[in-house]
Amino acid sequence: MKVERDQYEAWQRRWSEIDATVTDKNDNWVGAVTAFMHQIEDARHDAYLTGLARAARQRASEFKKLKRNAVPSDVFQTFLNAWGRVQGGIGMHLMDRPPT
Question: What would the pLDDT profile of 8-51 be if each residue is shown by its tens digit?
Fold first, then answer.
């Protein structure tokens, strides 16, 4: 499936919206991250970006499970690293494809 530049731009905006809600104080954002990462995974355009989305989704789910108990800071940090790589992967496509 070909993903158009407009889709990457929409994903970049959505990433920014969700990113503003991400905190280690609660897990209210996990559902939005999970749904968004599924959307990227379902596009199946880019194996690299799909893998990044899968990793971020898994780390968010891990955070939610552990949030019920004491959450080590490294679990949240691992999620943040994966989450940031998704933004980088989206941005890579926007740099590679100038606006038409």
Answer: 889 899 999 999 999 988 889 999 999 999 999 998 778 888 99
DSSP 8-state secondary structure symbol assigned to residue 99: -
Contacts of 57-66 with C-beta under 8 Å, sequence gap 24+, read 57/33, 58/82, 59/83, 60/29, 60/30, 60/33, 60/34, 61/30, 61/34, 63/27, 63/30, 64/27, 64/30
Determine the 3-state secondary structure of 22 from DSSP. Answer: coil
Q: How far apart are CA 44 and CA 40, in angstroms?
A: 7
Amino acid at 12: Q
